[in-house]
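Example 3.2
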Amino acid sequence: MKKKIRIFRAALKSIRNQFVGKPSDKLKFSFLVILHYFYKTVGIQKKVSFPESKFKLQNITLITRPDTIDFWACLESYEPDLTYFLTEILKNQKGSFIDIGGHIGRFTVLMAKNGWKTITFEPMESNYNSLIRNLEFNDCQKNTIVYNLGLGEENKTQTIYFDPREMGEASVMNTKQGSETQIRMVRFDDFMKNTKFEGFCMVKMDIEGNEERAINGMQNFLAEHKPMLVIELWKEHSKTLIPYLKSLGYKRLHIFWYIEQKHGGPIAEMRKLYEKSGMKINEEGELLN
């Protein structure tokens, strides 16, 4: 419970610092967020209607969709370690950033704005349209190619399940989200076989349980380019994916999978940051607190 309260307070602080608009609108939005999470915490089945809003995040502005919790992915408090790694530790690097599961574009837009060649896969049409809108609003669409596609083991059409208010959690695995639609899936190795990747190559993957299938479809790419990986890995897939990544020479630091010879410098900086913050890291690279 203490952790949830800490996360909630950090979110409210981020809203206070990042909301773009009149003070009265910021106050109303903060109240709606409090009401939303109160209902969620006590189990009241009542939906809060959020307006479309804008949030400033470093050197970009992200636009949310109405009646969604898109705002959560816009906040400074959302995935702060990954954000810091990309925008501070890698600030003097340039290369290819592959965003698998782009949602509304938090990481795609940040990296494109900072001059990286960005390739993004987002299978949900509503997310895709929102992502394109955010790229155009921040005038960095020229650095980015966005595909309205998902990644898997084969080229096919597949059902994806989603909650219209929480589109960032759309999943081909989680069938209990109420709504469903059809998406196109492709194998990365087939679809991107003629693409050149230059400079520092990094893959961020957050696709709600479909990680194993997506990685199975990009084995040639991984073996040849050995990119740094950031994976939101579901525990039930760890037994298969972890040994496979280790067989390619990857090591782990929390969500980061890296090749020591290629990525050791940036990872060493991130490790120091975790340790300075009081985090304990076991031999497998997992954070213990």
